[in-house]
Q: What sequence folds into this?
């Protein structure tokens, strides 16, 4: 299962109940531009506890957002999420916004959420935590790609070995908003490590009216680190979890909603006592999550992360060469809407429609 589309009913969306705003409101960095509105009573909240009623202002993402420290976050640690109430939501198209922190991000808007052409929202915040399980890898082997919505690729065997690190099975759809799983780190004989790629984060966007994506909303995983002397490459991180919840969802032909896996790092080498490092794998939103090149002539490149097809394993390394890291698996994209998604844009992983009565 890649993405889940859940059909809703009109009763699950609260009517807008707001007074007139006297300004453009508060920006995502916590600065006050003036003007507030009463927030609606958010009903039908999906995979997250409904936020309490309260005041809300327009939200503009403008460069960076930390879910641990941003003043717009409500205190909702029970759900391990930064919950933000807003009226309208927009993203500054002139600068990419990167969301970081230990908690996932959930935005509840009473009006439209617009991701305009050229705007980019990358979410690295939150993780699946204890749900992520990796098997141990042998010294010199590449790290396995993380597994979440789909399985990651196995790490390549190092030093002409016959074993390799295998990724765990995919994680069932989380019961609440969650980030993905990191890639497995590779270990060398001298306790050197090639770190696995970071997991994509968790993001929920809820609008009482519509979500229109003409830019990019990305919860893809990071690429694994390239190995050093006789060290395998780190595995790629998985995509995270993206929830889109609105009566109408539009992904325009320029729009992208993505939860791809990162590429595995290339294996390193120690040839005649000369260390050669492998290259880092690409993040899931770059070059299809391509695997990093291997060291020298070892042909021990990392595996490609999930982006429309299964994550690839890392290539094995011959003697004195570490194995390539495996590519990271896909994340989850969950949608709930009253009608089919329109616009013709890219939603990756692709959707598998599931009909269910929403809460």
A:
């Amino acid at each position: 299962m890649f993405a889940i589309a859940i059909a809703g009913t009109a009763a699950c969306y609260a009517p807008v109940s707001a007074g007139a705003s006297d300004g453009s409101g508060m920006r995502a960095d916590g600065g006050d531009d003036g003007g507030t509105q009463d927030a609606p009573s958010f009903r039908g909240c999906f995979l997250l506890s409904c936020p309490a009623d309260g005041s809300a202002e327009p939200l503009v993402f403008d460069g960076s957002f930390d879910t641990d420290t941003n003043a717009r976050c409500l205190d909702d640690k029970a759900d391990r999420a930064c919950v933000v109430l807003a009226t309208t939501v927009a993203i500054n198209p002139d600068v990419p916004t990167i969301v970081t922190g230990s908690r996932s991000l959930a935005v509840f808007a009473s009006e439209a959420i617009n991701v305009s052409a050229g705007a980019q929202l990358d979410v690295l915040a939150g993780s699946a935590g204890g749900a992520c399980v990796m098997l141990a890898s042998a010294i010199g082997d590449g790290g396995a790609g993380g597994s979440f919505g789909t399985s990651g690729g196995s790490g390549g065997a190092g030093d002409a070995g016959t074993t390799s690190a295998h990724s765990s099975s995919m994680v069932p759809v989380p019961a609440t908003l969650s980030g993905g799983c990191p890639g497995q780190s590779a270990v060398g004989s001298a306790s050197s490590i090639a770190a696995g790629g970071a997991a994509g984060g968790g993001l929920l966007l809820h609008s009482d009216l519509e979500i229109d994506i003409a830019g990019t909303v990305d919860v893809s995983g990071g690429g694994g680190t390239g190995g050093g002397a006789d060290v395998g490459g780190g595995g790629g991180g998985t995509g995270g979890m993206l929830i889109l919840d609105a009566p109408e969802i539009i992904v325009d032909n320029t729009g992208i909603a993505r939860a791809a896996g990162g590429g595995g790092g290339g294996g390193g080498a120690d040839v005649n006592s000369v260390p050669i490092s492998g290259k880092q794998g690409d993040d899931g939103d770059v070059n299809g999550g391509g695997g990093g090149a291997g060291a020298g002539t070892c042909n021990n490149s990392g595996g490609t992360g999930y982006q429309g097809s299964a994550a690839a394993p890392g290539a094995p390394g011959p003697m004195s060469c570490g194995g390539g890291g495996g590519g990271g698996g896909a994340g989850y994209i969950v949608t709930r809407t009253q009608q089919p998604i329109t616009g013709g844009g890219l939603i990756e992983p692709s959707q598998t429609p599931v009909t269910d009565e929403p809460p």
Observations:
- Residues 62 and 92 are 5 Å apart (CA to CA).
- The radius of gyration is 21 Å.
